[in-house]
Amino acid sequence: MPNYLGLDGFRFGWVAAWIDARGDHGFDYSPGLTRLLAMPHARAMIDMPIGLEWSGYRACDWRARELIGASVFLGARRDLWTFADMAAANRHYWKQEGRGRGVSAQLWNIRDKLKEVDDVMTPARQATVGEAHPEMIFWNLAGRVRLEPKTSARGSEQRIALLRDRGFTSIERWLTLRHGTGIGRDDLIDACACAVAARDSTHSVGDGKTDPRGLRMEINY
């Protein structure tokens, strides 16, 4: 039975949600990606950039930002994890590309996860493991309209309802089970959204270009 996998990072590692063609679904978590990606899957989507240039902003991020706003981080680059601190990274990027072309604290804080994904990805693996953005997924599921902020009670309700409608009927119970794991509420919701995209997505944004390792730079939703 085909299994569809969605992954999102959290403070202590990665959370994965899955759903199969019968509607059976579950979630798991691990300090690293290897065990989770070893789970059988027909397709997987991960909320982390795949395909990185040495400089500049990716076209797929620009396009996604046009559609859903600032929840899309700009500035994921291939050498981000090599700098000692965010200030050093920004000094380098400002010198190379100009003021205002640095990295945000949010992006800096996921630099190790960027590297972890880059380390496991190959062009061949990208046939079944793709990059997705949960807010793009929810925007699409909602009829291409922006939802209330995910940090608001209404926004959370909207996202949970969309997931229930797509088969994740256990999501509210799961949210009570995550306590003590370090998994954030949004992390689990976003992993489920990525699993929905792994099963259903036929859309992506990007300019068709590949990075120096041959990885397509695109965001699926």
Describe this protein's structure.
The protein has 221 residues and is of the alpha/beta class. It has one domain. The chain contains 9 helices and 7 strands; from the N terminus they run βββαβααααβααααββ. It has helices spanning 33-37, 59-68, 86-97, 105-108, 111-120, 134-141, 153-165, 171-177, 185-200; strands at residues 3-10, 13-20, 25-30, 43-46, 129-131, 204-210, 216-220. Strands 3-2-1-4-5 form a 5-stranded mixed β-sheet. Strands 6-7 form a two-stranded antiparallel sheet. It is globular, with a radius of gyration of 17 Å. The two termini are 23 Å apart.
Provide a compact summary of the structure.
The chain is of the alpha/beta class. It has helices at residues 33-37, 59-68, 86-97, 105-108, 111-120, 134-141, 153-165, 171-177, 185-200, and strands at 3-10, 13-20, 25-30, 43-46, 129-131, 204-210, 216-220.
Radius of gyration: 17 Å
> How are helices and strands ordered from N to C?
EEEHEHHHHEHHHHEE
Strand order of the largest sheet: 3-2-1-4-5
pLDDT < 50 stretches: none
Give the strand content: 15-25%
Q: What would the principal axes of the Cα set say about the shape? A: globular
Give the overall average pLDDT.
97
Total of DSSP H or I helical runs spanning 4+ residues: 9
Describe the largest sheet. 5 strands, mixed
**Terminal Cα span:** 23 Å
